[in-house]
Structure prediction request, 238 residues.
Amino acid sequence: MLTKTIAPALLSLFAWCLPCAAQTTVVDVKDDSTVHCPVRMSGTITFNESESGGFHHAALSSYALAATNLSNVPIVALVTYTLIGTSRGPLLGDDRQLDAFFSHDLEIAPGQTWTKTRNDNGEFITPFSDKAAKVAPAATSQVIFVQFADGNTCGNANDGRVTSLMDARADLLLALNKWNDAAKIGEHKFLKALDYKVTDRTGNAEGILGNIRDMQKEKGSTAAIEYIRSMLDVAATR
Prediction:
């Protein structure tokens, strides 16, 4: 009970102290890629930081990350990692993935910039030592892996984030083919197939499959089957 009583008081103190000495910092994202892929990383990160009672407070106010395709071929898949640091060191590591294997609309065309924003009003509170020297706030981003529409790839295909993306893609492709095969037999088979549990090793395929189930309920089987086949038609061109 004592802990529950003190915690709100401390949070109130932090909230009261934060505006007193809050400083807004804007940093440009530096491309720190170690792989030589035709993709340029850039962007701008803005955050507020202050210190009180031995604690460092940091809150992101704006986050814009950009990846520009410098090649002559559309990008089908992209995996990046961004690290944001305040005056007290590393703050946040952010993994980003794009997979346009089933949709031409999601591809990054030659010369096009793919922009991702993050709206996060959460606050990061960490203890610090007065003896520790401050550092310059910074943000770096690196390309981990790229796959192009012609089948060529660049980067580390064995990175766990990349294998996770590929596993999710394979599981999604397997489920879509099963649903399409059931639809060829008839609607009753299609509806039964939608109820079957599918293989989803990463937990990332279910979001898309769930959207298709919702589409069937809201718009009917014909619309859902057409959508499935449009995804498979795109996949067949890869």
Q: What stands out?
A: The radius of gyration is 23 Å. The CA atoms of residues 64 and 117 lie 5 Å apart. The longest strand covers residues 55-69.
